[in-house]
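Thread: quick sanity check before group meeting

JM: Hey all, I'm pulling together slides for Thursday and realized we never actually wrote out the predicted structure for the chain we discussed last week. Dropping the sequence here so it's in one place. If anyone has concerns about the input, flag it before I start.
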Amino acid sequence: MSNENDRYKNILDAIEHERAHEEAYYKSLATAITIKERIESGICWSPCDVIKSYYTIGEHAEVQFLRRERQKDRHKLKTGAGCIAYLPGQEAEGYKGIISFLRRDRLSIIFSNDAILRDHDFLHGNIVIELSYDERSYKVMRSAIHRLEKSNEEHIVDLREGVRKKNSFKETFHDRSIPDLEQLPLNDMQRISLQKAVQAKTLSIIHGPPGTGKTTTLVQLVRILLRFEKRLLVCAPSNNATDLLAREIAKHNIDVVRVGNVSRMGDETAHLSLANKAADSDEWQNIKKVKIAAEDAFKKARKFKRNFGEQERRERKFLQNEARDLKKWAKELENKLLDSILSKSQVVCTTLISAANKEIQDLNFDTLIIDEASQALEAECWNAILKAKRVVLAGDHFQLPPTIMSKKAKEIGFEETLLDRMADTIVHSTLLNTQYRMHDEILRFSNNAFYGGKLTSSEDVAKRVLAPDDQVITFIDTSGAGFEEALHEETHSKWNEGEYFILREHFIQHQQKYTDKCIGIISPYSAQVKFLTNSIRSDEIFMGLDIEVNSIDGFQGQEKDIIYISLVRSNDIGEIGFLSDYRRLNVAMTRARMKLVIIGDSSTVSQHALFLQLVEHIEKFGTYESAYQYMSY
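JM (edit): ok, ran it. Output follows.
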């Protein structure tokens, strides 16, 4: 950031730039005036009917809708997205919520309160459901930075100023020995990282490159920390990463509670959620009965009567008071139940933003563990850090950073994470150096280019191949083949039809080795991902095979036996756009276990030093081929 004395003011400015950018994006989606135009643009469903509705934890209501007519155009609605449900012409009186379920013409929405359940006209109207801008995460981050700046708590002041000044944080606990450290199912460097994380008084970092067992180390860290502490807070920036840790920790008979919006959790984690744990309890049935009784009282109070005199007025007032009292009682019973579940928990798992949820607003922790810290905005980290006395950051800052859309926010330095800033500064920072994923030849380039040659491969994977004579890493050069990139008119994303042709021909020649193997096809451009997906889906050559096509971002955290990478860029000026971010190349290459095939135009990409190094590396250590070898005329 430009001026470290104004560090936290700069973060607030960056939050506002990013917020304004997202708001402008959603406004651009809604520029269509009529509902028909909005349907065609893919941002809304209409008309919809209510199928059923019910109460969830808190004063939330969940409502399931059915779209009467299926529109042909693809829509942009998805699970976890913010939306608004309203009647035509009454958008200002609409109800905001989160899409919790979506399949074909049905979707469910969790609304922030239960007022919708009492709106008879809405529930029986021609309902419109539309994507909407959700400012909550920005409000949470702003609040966190304001509280950070005002805090006088000694441990928070130490951390705040230590991050500002890039202190080394040398202080340790001297009474935290681990007698059975050598017996833990970890390698030497994982044990060292765990010991440092247990003993560091303020801040520690576990730097986990691809395949080095970061998640395994964190689970063991949780087990050891629970010897010294009653309850831990475990966070990540995304729901997927949070879900993964929650599931892995729960496998060790640890009482885990997953806090957050159930609609954004995976199905395999839902049973750990605070909402589901509450719903499975005997007390919840009683609470539900009280809520229903309150709703019945409200309905009776609103019931139309032809003759409405003093007696009827007194009856209505009595019913309204009864409904309010029942609702208050239900809320008190529910809060008591949730507090009971949380007080018995050993680990609370939540996203960094959901650490602000009211269910845990009064809970404080000795230790906070943040996984995937390389993808976490500093501001959202502080939201969770303010609830703890010490922090463990885990991740790899040589992989993808947080997604920042605002150019101004990037210029301020919003993309820099706490992991970026502190990994090479603090004393208690450890690099996990043994990887268990990929063949040595796949590892070699990333190891030398990004990790200073410090990584080694486990013997189990170092020489693992599909077949004895198989090429492990290949670059197929399309230079001069006439396969120039194209621009998608609507999305302005790039795609390259010729690279699919080469991929397909290479696949045919090697497909006998691919039986019973999982295959990933990666491209940095959404238009190419869409083109490849549609082409492969309709091509019988690929039928029945385990193939996933996705972007680099979509593949982070995954691994496949075989990876194909379609670089797309092919032009006369050597322009490669965001491919120039070395972290994208690192993520894409390190998804492969046994075979990596990269297809691209060397004359274009080699205008950039990193890609020139890659091409030269593969010429020396791998297999360099020309696209002409796969073309016949």
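AS: nice. The radius of gyration is 27 Å. The first strand starts at residue 44 and ends at 55.
JM: adding both to the slides.
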